[in-house]
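pasting input
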Amino acid sequence: MKIVDDTSGDRLTAIVNDLRDFVRERDWEQFHDPKNLVMALVSEAGELAAEYRWVPNDASDSWSHDPDNRERIAGEAGDVGIALLLFLDRIGVDFVEAVRAKLEVNRVNYPQGPSRGKPDRLRT
Amino acid sequence: MKIVDDTSGDRLTAIVNDLRDFVRERDWEQFHDPKNLVMALVSEAGELAAEYRWVPNDASDSWSHDPDNRERIAGEAGDVGIALLLFLDRIGVDFVEAVRAKLEVNRVNYPQGPSRGKPDRLRT
Amino acid sequence: MKIVDDTSGDRLTAIVNDLRDFVRERDWEQFHDPKNLVMALVSEAGELAAEYRWVPNDASDSWSHDPDNRERIAGEAGDVGIALLLFLDRIGVDFVEAVRAKLEVNRVNYPQGPSRGKPDRLRT
Amino acid sequence: MKIVDDTSGDRLTAIVNDLRDFVRERDWEQFHDPKNLVMALVSEAGELAAEYRWVPNDASDSWSHDPDNRERIAGEAGDVGIALLLFLDRIGVDFVEAVRAKLEVNRVNYPQGPSRGKPDRLRT
């Protein structure tokens, strides 16, 4: 148990504030309109995809946990996370709320029984 | 001020747990190796890019805040967030830590003074 | 053997001309600056990735040749091709020349002997 | 006017053959299943997106034609083209036919009059 301030104690709020400061200190808000940030997000996601392109499915877990790869991959994923958080902050949407809202939609679109073992949306 | 349990009170930990349950209840771990989750992430990022492809830079802030677009965009960003969280959980990396670690790297690569107003990495 | 005019007889030149007409007839040049076309390209590539995200490597050949999937996949790849051709046409670069130039670069970066069986660029 | 053999004289057929030889000489067919090639395509498209992320729409034409940028961009687009051609060759689909087929679909989905000046699919 820990006593925390509702806002400052939230790890996510803290990192978003730090990202915002990082951008402001470099006068980068001018480049960070939503369109550009989505383009940055896509390019960072592409770099993460580059890491896995030649790794077979059945080796991709062990490959990801190899210390030689792990830090590099976490770094690429961190880039994706930065772009996503900056984008959401720019349009005024909270990360966890966006994820939670979509999860609730997915509960409807992928009902537990019929979707069992079937990762694609069911056609009705 | 609020009293919270260190783990359960963390909004991010809570949503990751919920995502994990959602996947387990549908027996989808078999599809969710790191390679496939990165591929899912890239395709969700592509859907977000589709939203912005014809929106000009200088209209993209107001366009994003239009209620007609906002919820749809938050939904696409939520999909990206879900894929990213599931990927990081699968490889055992914490989202905020990955973002924080990369932010620290960026502080070195983009020093405040020289990078002011210049969004590209400086060539040295 | 066939006698063809160098330009009009080229299948690629013909399809680029048709794409150009298609765009002009709809007054879409205003949306088709290079940035937007790259964003369109990325989103179409993401749709193609969506098709393969849950298909395991060792099933992806047979899955691609299944008539149920083949036409849909060819359609997604066609979308990627359209975006790429429109982009290259807009910046005044020929598709085959761009591919040929990069192939020559790759011959240097991936020398035949040392790169045998190794798909990643060699670190020297 | 030029006398060419229908197949060997086609620039596209020639480059696809050269790409095929390049892959075979390095024993890379083992890595080039359709899933991996799509992942390569997406990562190359992401690199192209990285080039344009901070370039505003209204500067993107002149920026693309700047000799300093042009060759680098053509190279990135060449990478996308290589991945796309290798993918299509692997699944046995001709590039121009895939583009042509999709263009015909687009003629139906984006009728000339109603789609004039409107780049998004019409909702009916």
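fyi The domain at 31-108 of chain D is CATH 1.10.287.1080 (Helix Hairpins).
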